[in-house]
Design brief:
about 525 residues, Aminopeptidase, Aminopeptidase i, Domain 2, six-stranded antiparallel β-sheet, globular
């Protein structure tokens, strides 16, 4: 069947009847099957849903995400990609270092540090008492970062690379993976002295491997492994010679290369490799922030392509969905009284306490600047705006792993390709409260979206999100929810092949309808 095949309403209802009969005969599904809608069939165009105008199928969203995630392996690539996507859809760039003294109604975005982005649409009649609809996510992912001085002595002719785990990286799950290198490089123009940031990416070429020890060696092969000495990437072999005096030095001007501040801190061969990727001289490289990453491409999987298998899901998948939803929301024009934001943060995996993290204040700064542009700004008006706002903290949660069914709380077992998952926690590790839960359920009912629940069992440990930080900093009601996945914090993860499209659909509905629905809750 073609991906663009259109199915009419009668065909959908007929399919629903067949599925119902099969379910009764099989006897394995005690729940009544849901009436077939566009959210139940990957190949049906989303335009079959009258309340959503996207021209893309759920499969097309997943295809685009798979391509996005291997072409943009580091947070700097991710933010640059989203900035380009926003500009292609009419959003204008505002520099945080400039004054925002004249912001007309329209669509805008700003970037901090190349790793923190906020985009927003603003109507001409918006006022602080109307509040702001906000979706926040984090665009960082677990990685192995090159140390400030990554050069290590070679071992029996093998060259090693000094890296540090970002978040929970360098676990056993990183062994035997094909690792590429990429990130942000500061390049200096020798003539003018001007420094610019350039992005490099070795994909599809892997430069490193962290080899496991064969089980034949017994106990040393079992682990856990020391992350400083036993999970060190190997990037080359030069025999017993002096690596820095390798024969290909004759191709380079070593004296000029010594002018780089990084000379001696990193392997000269690594510096030359990065310089070649950027088509610059080693002497022009002044500093870099580089990650190792899995170069294996994502793919659809399962007998019926029910899944996608991809790296770096946490939390780029929700970042992707939030940006695409804001774009989708603005395609029909910006509501005259609307103010909607998508903000993507860095450093969630390490606590968010950085200028580009959720505790760095980019969201608060953005709202304050918009208020100052429209009114005689004061602190009271900013507080009024946030008191009337809703923040969705969009982060991944845990999909049911059938091999470990017993570790999940009954009735809190998210499934793939069903709908977005609401995350709750009795000890406030998640920001969701009872009003937020009711609001999400009402938005789901209004737009035909199924809502799933996740909460940990009493004997389990909860993770964290940016939700509590944003709630405590702004005073805005905050709701934690997101796409469920297998294998969180692994180097490779799995989610449903419809889940990205379902998230974009829900988030678009949130931007469209949150304010009208929230008004019904009064002063709660």
């Amino acid at each position: 069947m073609s991906e663009h095949f259109e199915i009419n309403k009668d065909a959908i209802d007929a399919l629903a009847d067949v599925l119902k009969q099969i379910s009764v005969i099989d006897g394995k599904n005690k729940n009544k099957p849901v009436k077939a809608q566009c959210v139940k069939e990957t190949h049906v165009r989303t335009t079959e849903c009258s309340n959503w105008s996207s021209k893309k199928t759920f499969r097309e969203y997943s295809e685009e995400y798979i391509k996005f995630t291997y072409e943009n392996p580091t947070i700097y690539h991710v933010i640059k990609y989203f900035a380009k996507k926003l500009e292609e859809n009419g959003f204008k760039y505002l520099s945080e270092k400039s004054s925002w003294t004249s912001i007309d109604a329209g669509k805008y975005y700003t970037v901090r540090n190349g790793s923190n982005l906020a985009a927003f649409s603003l109507g001409s009649d918006w006022a602080p008492e109307l509040g702001v609809g906000i979706i926040g996510a984090h665009a960082d992912a677990l990685s192995a970062k090159l140390k400030p001085a990554s050069k290590k002595p070679n071992v029996e002719g093998f060259e090693l690379l000094g890296v540090a785990p970002y978040g929970g990286a360098l676990s056993e799950l990183w062994l035997d993976r094909d690792l590429g290198v990429g990130g942000r490089v500061l390049v200096k123009d020798q003539a003018t002295g001007k420094v610019e940031a350039r992005l490099c990416n070795s994909w599809p070429h892997p430069i490193a491997k962290i080899p496991s020890l064969a089980p034949h060696f017994g106990a040393p092969s079992v682990g856990p492994f020391d992350k400083e000495d036993q999970t060190v990437p190997v990037v080359g072999y030069v025999g017993n010679g002096d690596y820095d005096d390798d024969d290909d030095d004759e191709e380079y001007d070593l004296e000029d290369e010594k002018n780089s501040p990084l000379y001696g801190k990193h392997s000269i061969h690594l510096l030359r490799y990065i310089a070649k990727l950027l088509s610059v001289k080693v002497s022009s490289i002044t500093q870099f922030d580089l990650d190792l990453f899995d170069v294996q491409e994502g793919t659809f999987g399962g007998l019926k392509d029910e899944f996608i298998f991809v790296p770096r899901v946490d939390d780029r998948i929700c970042s992707f969905s939030a940006i695409y939803a804001l774009i989708e929301h603005t395609k029909a024009g910006t509501a005259s009284d609307g103010f909607n934001v998508a903000v993507l943060y860095d450093n969630e995996e390490v606590g968010s306490l950085t200028r580009q993290g959720a505790k760095g204040g980019l969201l608060e700064s953005l709202v304050e600047r918009v208020i100052a542009n429209k009114t005689d700004s004061n602190l009271s008006e900013m507080r009024t705006a946030f008191a009337n706002s809703i923040i969705i903290s969009a982060d991944v949660t845990h999909m049911l792993n059938p091999n470990f069914n017993s570790v999940y709380l009954e009735n809190h077992k998210p499934k793939p390709n069903v709908g977005i998952t609401l995350a709750l926690d009795s000890n406030a590790h998640m920001a969701t409260d009872v009003v937020g839960t009711a609001l999400v359920e009402e938005l789901g009912r209004l737009n035909g979206d199924k809502i799933q629940y996740f909460q940990i069992k009493n004997n389990s440990r909860s993770g964290g999100t940016i939700g509590p930080s944003l709630a405590s900093q702004t005073g805005a009601r905050t709701i934690d929810m997101g796409i469920s996945q297998w294998s969180m914090h692994s180097i490779r993860a799995t989610t449903g092949s419809k889940d990205i499209g379902l998230a974009v659909k829900f988030f678009t509905g949130f931007y469209n309808d949150w304010n009208n629905v929230y008004k019904n809750f009064g002063d709660l």
